[in-house]
Design goal:
By secondary structure, the protein is α/β, with parallel strands linked by helices. Helices cover about 50% and strands about 15% of the residues. It is built from 9 helices and 7 strands. α7 packs parallel to α8. The longest helix has 19 residues. The termini are far apart. It binds zinc ion.
């Protein structure tokens, strides 16, 4: 027997128990742990984003009044969305966060939602647009038209997909085709996609087949035109200085 095998189930992943005189197999702790690890690996949330939580999404980083109003409205809409998540799921409705300004909190919010949904036990996948395109390019270069990359398969099958920084690349034909493939598969299967982008849906350069599906299946939510990266960096610095001088 494998020496690494679980001592409780002997590595089978199941334990036999008896309930009301009926013998049945239940999942061992080691199998539950393995499933959880696979779910986290599949999600592929960047390490730096793992601590982003809805509870610690700070609104005080925005200095402009307009930005605060904008982020307050966004948070309200997101709360309603998450409270009614089962309805959103059956309608296949996702979210589309946009603002021209980098560092306005879109990615941070998308990652916070991803972490929240993961905690609820959902299957989530996080990918940046540039990473997806890089994988597509690799597939294309290898002339492996008939075998989609593993990432592309995962993007189509993931129950909830986050595409970060969507719409930044020049929409040449093959990019349009591949994005259409992913978005259309998800559209047909009514799977939820959450986008972040630095432009509104109607200003995306992708072809109408893509933008129409996104329009139909997401709530577009505007984010402030203000970067909070600087503020967060200053705050972190201040906290660090305080910590080392204590
Ligand atoms: Zn076990």
């Amino acid at each position: 027997m494998d020496s690494d095998a679980c001592p409780i189930c002997g590595g089978s992943g199941y334990i036999l128990t008896e309930e009301n005189g009926i013998e049945m197999a239940v999942r061992c702790k080691c199998l539950k742990r393995k499933i959880e690890q696979n779910r986290l690996r599949f999600a592929n949330i960047p390490t730096g984003f793992c601590e982003y939580k809805l509870q610690n999404f700070s609104l005080s980083g925005y200095r402009e009044r307009e930005s605060r109003e904008c982020i307050t409205a966004a948070c309200k809409a997101i709360k309603i969305y998450l409270d009614r998540f089962e309805d959103m799921r059956s309608a296949g409705l996702g979210l589309y966060f946009y603002s021209r300004t980098k560092g306005s909190g879109k990615t941070r919010m998308a990652a916070s939602i991803a972490n929240e949904l993961l905690e609820r036990g959902e299957q989530v996948k996080f990918a940046t647009s540039s990473h997806i395109l890089k994988e597509i390019k690799d597939t294309w270069r290898n002339d492996s038209e008939y075998s989609e990359s593993r990432l592309l398969d995962q993007l189509s099958i993931a129950e909830i997909l986050i595409i970060d920084d969507f719409g930044t690349e020049k929409p040449v034909d093959w990019i349009n085709d591949k994005f259409y493939h992913i978005i259309n598969e998800r559209y047909i299967a009514k799977k939820i996609t959450i986008f972040t982008s630095n432009m509104p849906i109607n200003q995306l350069d992708y072809d109408d087949r893509i933008t129409n599906r996104i329009k139909e299946r997401t709530y577009a939510i505007a984010f402030p035109e203000e970067s909070i990266r600087e503020v967060i960096a200053e705050k972190n610095k201040a906290e660090m200085i305080r910590a080392i001088s204590e």
